[in-house]
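Service request form, structural biology core

Requester: graduate student, group of Dr. S.
Request type: structure prediction, single chain
Budget code: on file
Notes: please return the result as structure tokens.

Sequence provided:
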Amino acid sequence: MAKKYGFSENELASVMPRDMECVYCGEKMLYPYDLANRKKSATLEHLNHIRPFYKQYGLLLSGLTYCCGSCNSSRGKKSLFEWFAKPYCSPERNNINRATVAEPVRKYIERRIAEGAEW
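Core staff response, request fulfilled:
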């Protein structure tokens, strides 16, 4: 079985039903990934913008979500709060912010703040 970020397909299968809509913009996504519709296809996203990016180095399954290709591409390597400040996330475009993202992302942000992470 192929692994992404060190997680098995069975482990990742537990995340997919929760994230049928993009955790950032809320749009329904295409499963499986469709190369012809990359912007609307579901992509696996690690919420943390800094390492570790792999299970064997400490990445938790709770640190993974699915988002649309458009949001994933826009975010790139930015932290969530850096990205929230970008035009793509503005109220005029996609209205993506700490209050509008899906629960897994909000929980991740709360956990990071409780750990003392600087945003």
